[in-house]
Amino acid sequence: MANPETESPDSAQRRRALDPSRSFIVQSPAGSGKTELLIQRYLTLLGLVERPEAVSAITFTRKAAGEMGRRVMDALAAAAGERPDQGHRALTWELARRVRANSEARGWRLEHNPGRLGIQTIDALCASVVRRLPWLSRMGGAPSVVEDARELYREAARATLDLLEGGRCGEEVAILLRHVDNDRQALERLLVGMLARRDQWLRHIDAAEPEKSRAALERSLENVALDAVAAVRGAVPDRWAVEMAAIAAEAGLHLEEAGREGAALACVGLAGPPGADRLDAWLGMADILLTKGGAWRKSLTVANGFPSTDKPLKERCGGLIETLSASEAARRALDELRHLPDRRFSEEQWRILSSVVKLLPVAVGHLDGIFRARGAADFVEVAIAARRSLEGSSGAGPDQRVEHILVDEFQDTSVSQHALLAALTAGWRPGDGRTVFAVGDPMQSIYRFREAEVGLFLKTRRDGIGSVPMEPITLEANFRSAAGVVGWVNDTFPGVMPEEEEIPTGAIPFSPSAAVRGAGEGPAVTLHPFIGRDDEGEAARVVEIVRSARDRGDKAAILVRSRSHLASILPALEAAGVGFRAVEIEPLALMSVIGDLAALTRALIHPADRIAWLAVLRAPWCGMTLGELCAVAGNDLQAAVRDLSRDEGVTAALGAEGRSRLARVTAALERARGMRSASLRARVEGTWLALGGPACASKPEDIENAGVFFDLLEEMDDGGTLDMERFEQRIGELYARPDPGADDLLEILTIHKAKGLEFDVVVVPGLGRPPNHDEARLMLWLERPRLADAEADLLLASPGAAGAERDRTYDYLRRIEGLKSAHETGRLLYVAATRARSELHLLGHAGFKEGDDGIELKEPASGSLLGCLWPAARGAFEEAAARYAPAEVDGGAPPPAGRVPRPIRRLAPGWALPVLPAAVEGTAAEPGEAGEGRVSFHWVGDTLRHVGTVVHQALRQIAEGGAWTEDTVRGRVPSFRSALASLGVPREECAAAADRVAAALAGALGDERGRWLLGPHGLAACEYALSGVVEGRVVGARIDRTFVDERGTRWVVDYKSSLHEGAGVDAFLDNECARYRGQLERYRKLFGMLEERPVRTALYFPLLGAWREVE
Cα(607)–Cα(610) distance, rounded to whole angstroms? Predict the structure, then answer.
């Protein structure tokens, strides 16, 4: 991104944001240099505090934390050099110089101790709170964190549903099963989903006293009504609210006198605007002002309480409507009154919900037991424990050293995370020297599916966090996009985004930007309208655009809302020979190589699986035609295909070449069946290689994708058995690797993945395509931020049974979800548009119908991006429609051809495995392993070997961005014990082994060389796999730690967890160097083939605090 210049349109605001004595919430639109400002604020504070840990910067991803840490360290390194000329760089340089001076004066030595920088993810923050307050957290320290806990949720859900057979809550399980038509899997999915989000509802319900939970939930329903009435009072000035009540009272009186029914009857006797408890009266006022569709009334009739005999009243009401019609907020607030949920649950509703309230804590109990048994927890559990710790510490906080908190991407905060921040700052007061700095862009909040609640940004801007008020700042400068792009965004998005903000629905008004860059040469924004859906036409236009960008050397990106929008585009690009990098676009499960491997795996596990065997015979390594498959398996629908393929009477129907192919495949599968002692991966991968799987790959990345399949197979192998259903689910969650041979001139990714990136040319196809609609859910719940309360409410509802009266609470929650989704769709379009530096191309279609007067356009599909853009795009589509001529059907043309069968792919007849080159030999055992002489100093036994494994894992976590301290290590001892136990360490040895792990890690963190080794460096990697041919032999390596230092030297370091026992330390270390010198020399040669830079190798002994460079 172009960087901020000395003076930008918002320079004064940026300088204000660096005031270390005040707390701010900064709205930073796309391209405004948010990260630069955040780093400058961080450096400002770091230059003033007594300890670097006093400043805590919180991000939501490891990538963001790592990037921020890298940029801070780069700034500190650059501050040792000359002052740059650019204004923004000069300011960063000056701030970094102050940090260096403070660091030197206080002995921080940050360049050697980057782990002291308090830059971490919010998950890491929660873990640190738990470690520091283990008693209050009730976790006894931070356990091992499970990244994907869905299997554990599923296990807990199944255990809960098993209570149906007997035990407490069996009746509740039965009630819920009946409610879902005895669909056990549906109820299991519901429990799994609610367990994954238990931080939203757990603190709101009390299983021991369901009536207390009922009271709390019904109080939340009342609060919805209170807030709705407050919204009307806020949108309608008092003068007009009084007039509204007076008119409604008279209209109600007319209805009463005429003996008519009508909502205005509830307004009879009003002397002024009613209180929030008189919702019926407010509904009566809404009824006389709005139509059933929610529009302002244009006529008033006797049915509304306006008889022809009282024209003055009708004129008064007409004048009131005319006045209020200028306020969209007033119309929306009045209409919202009609959609409110009931304020009390019916007995049937509560029967269902009380079963949920009683059952959910039981499911949580099962999940807690599963976590304890495995010594593990998920991020949600750690976050719940962290908040419990903070709230139980009476505001003392986990660490009084923290004086300043910075939060990046604040628009993506969830309700639970916001509550955690409030607990962290409990007791803070304005002017006490402690500050909060939150930065983000609510216009780019597009992660609602991750529980991001953008309304919290608005609430914090208004009310602050906890007891800390926040001064709002809005940046304006856009340093990324050309003036034409910025101008189009400024002109267009006020009509895309809502006019006024609204906390409950996450309505975010548009905030304009000021372009810093000048205009480009060509059109900045081009809308490509298509009349009628034409996926192939859009794909062809996309190819034209990216080819043009490629010819100019511009970097382009195709951004899509859904991967399905690429169905025609990817083949068109491949046909045109345009290379691209697809980032998590092509599902792995849809690739033919993966489908063939899945069939092969099934056939090896279940020899009687006919479909799997037929798929294996159809795959390219055999390539049997449909006729050949019928000849083998079509005459006996019961026998196993494995048996039929070995029956000479059956295979005689095949030709000689077909029999040869079949015999080769069945022989390979039979060999695999004899490898029962081998791992499942070895059997499947070995058979795939024997069949010629790599030779069947249609593109190079197929081999890498097969490797992903084998890795997952190895991970899920359970003693030679495999949960195939779960395995295929996991495969369905993975994506194909990008083409390794593609350049970086074209990337293809979803809009969500593109956030934070920028490209010269951005292409957004499929604007007219509707989104995938979510199915009706068995349970809806919503943590709803209150307008005037720190604590959020929980709303909970279930749809009524078939044929029952509609549940207004469920309908209300569906409506709120719909409004939130509509607002987020507009923000999604904003994110896509603002990725463009120079050119933005928007492609989409509008439907049409032909009439006597020509083409008539249809409204865009509901929820589509084009629907958001329609006010600005309609004109272009109408012009295209005027030029559009539907294709005429040639009456003499032959009818369309039938389905053309796909040509079958198979290996050539007589194909055989290639012979390995004679000059290449496999490596012998690594030094120090079997086959080499042993030295006199060694660490013997499986337990000590497993200690080394755990130490290596932890050192990798530290090096990859974990802000570990010695307190962190002590807090993780329980998880070390669990990890060692899972590796097979005897129970009686686990405690001592875990202490040894902790000692090794504490030694590394306490050692200056260790901190340097594990700190941030360029081109750094851990457990780096490398292979090549050295001196005529294939050499494979897995390097513990490698990086390039500030002098451009490549370091290759192996960790050695050995503990010297017996002889002199120096002699021991010398022997270790001699022992591993040959191995490190091979590593040096491998890197020498990859890059032209100096390579140095070393051994690091964390238990000894020893370092030995190996020449």
Answer: 8
Q: Which CATH number fits domain 588-733: 3.90.1150.10, 3.40.430.10, 1.10.1740.10, 1.10.486.10?
A: 1.10.486.10
Average pLDDT, the chain: 86
Q: Percent of the chain at pLDDT above 90?
A: 45
**Taking Cα atoms as reference points, which of 450, 557, 583, 434 lies closest to residue 61?**
450
- CA nearest to 218, candidates 236, 232, 231, 205: 205
Selection from 154, 174, 179 nearest residue 164 by Cα: 174
CB 389 within 8 A of CB 398: yes
CA 898 to chain centroid, in Å, comes to 43
Q: In what order do the strands lie in the sheet with 1095-1101?
A: 1018-1030, 1033-1044, 1050-1055, 1095-1101, 1106-1110
**Residue type at 1010?**
G
3-state helix, strand, coil in the chain (%, to 5): 50, 15, 35
Separation of alpha carbons 49 and 400, rounded Å: 13
Up-side HSE of residue 293: CA atoms within 13 Å toward CB? Answer: 4
Query: What does the block give as tokens for 167?
Result: 């035990």
Tokens representing residue 592 in the block = 């033919």
The residue that leads in pLDDT, 269 or 144, is: 269
Residue range(s) occupied by CATH 3.90.320.10 in the chain: 1011-1110
Q: Does domain 10-138+379-479 have CATH number 3.90.1170.40?
A: no
Question: pLDDT tens across 368-377, in order?
Answer: 999 888 888 8
Assign residue 807 a region (left: φ > 0; alpha: ψ between -120 and 50; beta: otherwise).
beta
Domain 525-583+746-883: give its CATH code.
3.40.50
Token code pair at residue 112: 């050697």
Q: What is the pLDDT of residues 273-302, one digit of tens each?
A: 998 889 999 999 999 999 999 999 999 999
* pLDDT (average), residues 178-199: 88
**Residue 441 and residue 34 in contact, taking contact as beta carbons nearer than 8 Å:** yes
CA separation for the pair 354, 208 (Å, rounded): 11
Residue 1012 CB-density burial (10 A; 0-12 exposed, 13-18 middle, 19+ buried): middle
- Give the DSSP H/E element, type plus range, for residue 682: helix 680-691
Domain limits, CATH 1.10.486.10, in the chain: 588-733
DSSP per residue, 127-151? HHHHHHSHHHHTSSS--EEPS--HH
**Residues in CB range of 163: below 8 A, 6 or more apart:** 169, 170, 173, 362
Give me the percent of the chain exceeding a pLDDT of 70: 91
Q: Pairing between strand 435-440 and 471-474?
A: unpaired
Per-residue pLDDT at 959:
82
Residue 519's closest CA among 486, 556, 550?
Answer: 486
Amino acid at 413: T
In the CATH scheme, what architecture does the domain 1011-1110 have?
A: Alpha-Beta Complex (3.90)
